[in-house]
Amino acid sequence: MSAEATGAGAAPPAPRRALALDGVSPLVLLALFGLFPLVAIATGQTYWLSLVNRIVIMAIAALSLDLILGVGGLVSFGHAAFVGIGAYTAGIMVDGGRGDLLLVLPVALALAAAFGAFTGAASLRTKGVAFIMITLAFGQMAFFFSQALYAYGGDDGLTLFERSTVAGFPVLENKVAFFYVSLGFLAAAYTLVRAIVGSRFGRALQGARDNPVRVASFGFDVFRIRLAAYVMSGMLASVAGVLLANQAEFVSPAYMAWQRSGELIFMIIIGGLGSLWGAVLGAAAFLLLEEALSGFSEHWKLAFGVLIVLFVLFTRGGLADLLRRLTSRGGARG
Q1: Is residue 140 part of a domain?
Q2: Residue 219 region, left (φ>0) first, then alpha (ψ -120 to 50), else beta?
Q3: How far apart are CA 279 and CA 19, in angstroms?
Q4: Selection from 182, 172, 205, 198 nearest residue 74 by Cα
């Protein structure tokens, strides 16, 4: 029986369509985000501009976690610590009068890399539940350390009376300009992570997730590959923290709490585990749903949890896969 008769010859086009969609979808999302300030200004809804800016920032954090969770298979419950490191770096440097973004970002990246290298070297010697628990422990250590920073607010957090400058210019003081700066970072983060995943390193990381013994037999050091990915992921999350501190004009130990790490995991699951643009979709869906439900009842978290559970149970591959399947069906009908 021929390949055409068995349907084997029809299999290759599906991956090509999926790949094309993965390439176009992020561009569509970024274009929609880019148009939003115009809509917000035209309608006078500046609050929504702040909300979408927060979505863009959290999408960077979700994207960073997706690198080690969706691609590398490493479930970290301490990833919010990296966001908090970036946020506190920005807050402390702004409070000290050295808050230019060109100074803050290198410091935040360096601190996140150091924290990631130290905690990753210990965490990655374990696996499974042990890895989850040790990342949770390190995350909580960072949380309690931030609470002990009494000079910078302690439990009460630190209020920023100004935002970071950019090369000496108060660019971030303008909400629209700040939004486009955040969107630029998201575009750069997506491009970077996509390049990493598509590289030889990225393929080795995926292989280590599926079959670490086989990858090691090819001469790759699985521990070093995972550690490098862990450090890069943490550094990218710290960028989100720097932006979040400036957007909220406030820094709090709550940024490092394990619940924030759980929220990032939910964002990735909702969007589609391992789908990079799905992480962006998941962040948008999570925060928009949170915003909508919080306006109805003070017990909105109960309904929120139920909806997330139902979504996970009755969808496969998250929003990214759902849209991919809908698009494929539409193309087939056309």
Answers
A1: yes
A2: left
A3: 16
A4: 205
- Per-residue pLDDT of 167-187, as tens digits, reads 989 999 999 999 999 999 999
Alpha-carbon gap, residue 214 to 11, rounded angstroms: 27
Q: Which two tokens stand for residue 144?
A: 């309690």
The pTM (predicted TM-score) of the whole model is 0.88
Question: Does residue 28 lie within any of the structural domains?
Answer: no
Residue 92's pLDDT band (boundaries 50, 70, 90)? very high
Q: Are 319 and 275 in contact (CB under 8 A)?
A: no
Instruction: Give how far Cα 16 sits from Cα of 26, 70, 96, 174, 272, Å.
Output: 16, 21, 52, 42, 19
Structural domain harbouring 40? 36-254
Estimate to the nearest angstrom the gap between the alpha carbon of 328 and the chain centroid. Answer: 27
Residue 104 CA neighbour count, 13 Å, CB half: 32
Tell me if 205 sits within 8 A of 225, measured CB to CB. Answer: yes
Instruction: Tell which residue, 29, 37, 31, has the closest CA to residue 53.
Output: 37
For the chain, how many structural domains are there in total? 1
Tell me: the pLDDT tens digits for 291-305? 888 877 777 788 888
Residue 287 forms part of a structural domain:
no
pLDDT for position 24: 54
pLDDT at 53 over 80: yes
Let me know if residue 21 belongs to a domain. no
Q: At what angle do helices 276-294 and 46-66 cross, to 10 degrees?
A: 140
